[in-house]
Amino acid sequence: MSGGTLVNAEEERKADLAIADGRIAAILPPGERVEARRVLDVSGCLLLPGLVDVHAHLREPGLTHKEDFSSGTHAAALGGVTTILDMPTDLPWTASAEQLAAKMGMASNRIHVDVGFQAVLSRNLDSIAPLLELNPVSLELFTADVPEAFLFPTLDAVVELLKCLSGTDTTVGISPGDESILLGSARRGSAPDVAAFLASRPPLAEANGIARAMLAAAATGARIHVRQINSKLGVETWTRLRGLADASVETTPQNFFFSSDCYSTAHGARLKASPPFRSQEDVMALREALQAGLIDIVATDHAPHTPSEKAASYAAFADIPGGMPGLQTLLQAMLKLVDEGVILMRDICPGSARVIRPSDSGWDGRKGRIAPGYEADILVLDPQQESVIANAEQVSKAGYTPFDGWRVKARLRRVFLRGEEIVREGILVQEAQGQIVVRGG
Question: Relative to the CA of 213, which of 181, 234, 370, 438 has its CA 20 to 30 Å away?
């Protein structure tokens, strides 16, 4: 690749790239003559590492009317996401080695980008050792709002489970919540409106979930990743406790743009997810935390539902299926933050810790940077061309995006996966080039 500007977490510089056997072979001074089978002129473009989305629901098995491995990874490829870490909450939930192996088999030869799988921790502790033999990229622990078999609602339960993982060098993803607040809200007989939904999952529940996760990790030495946070109180709790343990935290791009006021619009059902959007003050606190480097990872929580499911009539707002698509728009949403001066272009790069810390998945030296020896997952971005996010262009089965109509001051021209071009000008040009990735491999 000749004539481009390399963008890594720590710098931007003009350079040419040599690629061989799917990896970056060398970074060369601009215009240096080398022998090559093919030279691609990317003059005027930025070259970024392919994005990694650590929190996505591809809905397979069991929920393929909402999404499947092919449609979800197609959306990811068009959006510049070259690696996805898939969550385990499908049908059935991925809780055993047999279920994880079956899921890997289903994805084989059907994925357009690389996919790593995450397994859920259940009360059947005997399942942990066989799961670890398959090297899932993480194990997921839930403290609220899930079926009983996967619920760890107390600090004692979380600590005892993390003790079982001591010494395994495995990252445990923890979704912060407080089951006692959820149950208390239900007992008080809240009305079936938006306000009741917000009251059942308040910032206090998030903050307590974060504190509990951090204290449990500190007590056990476990490495944890706190799933999406989106409140000022949650950010303040994380900021005070982040030094206690080996931990990282994520949020979603939509949390930087939408507030709870948006639920009153005609698109409120499409925006319903958990945790719910907060106040505008919370949105600003989250933006400030991102600028300050306090948010480690931005991930989509891509959780599509069909248009008919979102549009149906429900007895309560809380009953609307929670989640929205995001894989195809992660890059554009982050570029919008660049346009607004919240972050810099290099902050989008995975190695910046704004989208992933590769060390969390055992991928040091493999993904997240444009550097010799790293896999050639590369985005060619034209900063002189504007792009418009549109529902009509979304290939997820959800068929919409919350960012419809938004303009971004850049355009994704090409996407490369391990040196092979998979997307050109918004069109998938290679079929099923993705591989299943595992922790440390």
Answer: 438
